[in-house]
Amino acid sequence: MRINLLMVALLGMGILLGGCKEKPMQAKQIPLEDFFKNPDQSRYRISPDGKYYSYMAPYENRMNIFVQEIGSDTAIRLTSETDRDISGYFWKNPTRILFMKDTGGDENFRLYGVDVDGSDLVCFTDFPKVRTEIIDDLENFPTEVIIGMNKRNEQVFDPYRLNIETGEMEMLAENPGTIQAWMFDHEGKLRAAMALDGVNSQILYREKESDPFRVVLTTSFKETMNPQFFTFDNQNVYAVSNLGRDKAAAVIFDLANGKEIEVLYENPDYDVDALSFSQKRKVLTTANYESWKGERHFFDDETKQLFERLNTELGAYEIAITGMTKAEDKFIIRTYSDRSLGAYYIYDKNTDQLTKIVDVSPWIDENEMASQVPVDYQSRDGLTIHGYLTLPLGYTLENAEDLPVVVNPHGGPWGRDSWGFNPEIQFLANRGYAVFQMNFRGSTGYGKKFWEKSFKQWGLTMQDDITDGTQWLIEKGIADQDRIAIYGGSYGGYATLEGLVKTPDLYAAGIDYVGVSNLFTFMKTIPPYWKPFLEMMYEMVGNPVTDSLQFVETSPALNAEKIVAPLFIAQGANDPRVNKDESDQVVQALKTRGIVVEYMVKDNEGHGFHNEENRFDFYRAMEKFLGEHMK
Fold it and tell me: For position 282, what pLDDT does the model report?
């Protein structure tokens, strides 16, 4: 879909028309809490036997797990967490649910289990300062799951087979220090592993569990060969790979011989990022990729027909399947758009009945929300940068003129912004701001070359992409050049600080949310389980020894004397990724010079604010700060 070109053409037309543009009436102001409060019900799943559906809902302002028998009007609350939301959950079998929770945002997740009636609540991994990860839910084995823990060595994760009835755990292999992922076949056997040895990626393989692992493929970390799951005869793997190509493609890969057998699907413009399959029918179903929206390539007619059937009733929205029964005859369907958090439905394939369960946020009227429009522009060195522009309700690309703008670079930085409902974007648009998001170089999904162009470019060409997009908005007449703020979280917080340092006259204000400020200290305080990635990070971000001059130049905390715009910083005290000291350094440097800096620290948060009351505080302070400095 080349909608971007159309939007740019319309934008140009709006500028060429010139003259006095009629401005729309002010949109109805929606209470801040409506954007950021917990949904009434979300994250719906269905039990493997189709008897129950489950969901998360608030209990004392924290998201907990509820279960309801299909056809019943009453639900049972399974958990009673009051300090922090449950992070995620899934059905292990028809009577047991597993879920994860950390403490105060420390990301040391523990695994719990609870029965469908709320009984037998057990913590399986009650170990201090240990992080638990789900490696394989072993769908075909109702009493077992494969987990990873850094219990033996805080820097690496060993795989364990956990019996959820007895609580017994068996360590299946000892991580030598390089393995980052373990892979099991359809019979639950540990057959493959993905390792990172410095800056080289390796695939290890064995025919059976009694055999030693052997290296079958070694590549640079810059190349991707990401096995998704074994073929249904357990001989090869379906994988996503960019070996020998720029865009990652769906392939079949022969692990035993370390070679690609067949290309199943590739897109000329975007990376394939995931594959899906039918466990029951044992067929590959879709390859997923993202243009300006999420897209699917169908391998399977039955799956294609299912989505076509759903589109007949839900076609005004994007559609996702978030759960299904083991028989694959009942499905949980989620809808969404850029202006709506959508709803959940149950689709019964046997009766062809689509039944609405609940609207996720019924207090949000999508007719009062703004549209997120895909756009693109050229960087100063000739790259096409894709992004999104959200204008306040009533404005279009033809009549948008001299608007206050919030420039919002994404985190990661090796992620991307996507199309869909974003409460903070809608909140800012409702308050009269245009919001500009851009997928600067290094953003994922656009191929290997575009990603590699970001290496060692923090504060350099990556920042120039953000600056060039902001200048593009000014040149088009959309942005009032005296009322532009920059706001971002994590890497976006770094880009905010660096924007205020590098282009101090461009932004009227900045908001840094859990952002990196000093590349030297950031590298020293990463979580222990990131240590195996250090050599890779040295290539991607820079080496604090050999690139020290560049680090001095591109660390905002070391150049804070250049910041003149007012700044608001928000930080979680328990952040394991971006240490609180990253924010403290900037605050101290600015206060010493008398620059306006507001500082919010939440003692019960980590890398981002998850508790509802903390979200309210943050966005309330953001609204006030922007109102004072963007008049």
Answer: 97
Q: What's the pLDDT score for residue 23?
A: 65
In this structure, what is the dihedral angle of CA atoms 245, 246, 252, 257, given to the nearest 10 degrees?
50
* Residue 451, amino acid: W
Instruction: Tell me the whole-structure pTM to 2 decimals.
Output: 0.92
Burial 246-266 (b: 16+ CB within 10 A, else e): bbbbbbbbbbeebebeeebbb
Q: Mapped to the 3 state alphabet, what secondary structure does 476-536 carry?
A: CCCEEEEEEEEEEECHHHHHHHHHHHHCCCCCCEEEEECCCCCHHHHHHCCCHHHHHHHHH
Q: What is the pLDDT of residue 631?
A: 76
Nearest to 145 by CA among 133, 161, 159, 158: 161
Pairing mode, strands 372-378 and 225-230: unpaired
Distance CA 59, CA 67 (A): 14
Q: For residue 326, give the nearest of 42, 46, 135 by alpha carbon.
A: 46
52 membership: H or E segment, kind and range: strand 52-59
Domains and CATH numbers, the chain: 3-30+373-570+618-629 (3.40.50.1820)
Alpha carbon 388 to its chain centroid, in Å, reads 17
Give the residue numbers marked as catalytic.
490, 575, 607
Tokens of 16: 């060429």
The stretches in the chain having pLDDT less than 70 are 1-25
Nearest by Cα to 208 from 196, 191, 185? 191
Describe the strand order of the beta sheet including 88-93 as a list of residue ranges: 88-93, 96-101, 110-115, 122-123
Tokens describing residue 195: 């390792």
Do 576 and 607 form a contact (C-beta atoms < 8 A)?
yes
Question: Residues with Cβ < 8 Å from 173, sequence gap 6 or more?
Answer: 158, 159, 182, 190, 193, 213
The token pair that represents 489 in the structure block: 């979280």
Burial of 100 from C-beta contacts in 10 A (0-12 / 13-18 / 19+): middle
Which of 314, 250, 254, 258 lies closest to 277, judged by CA? 250
Q: Check: CB of residue 59 under 8 Å from CB of residue 81.
A: yes
Tell me the β-bridge partners of 329.
Answer: none
Residue 342 backbone zone (phi > 0: left; psi -120 to 50: alpha; other: beta): left
At 27 the pLDDT is 76
pLDDT at 22: 61
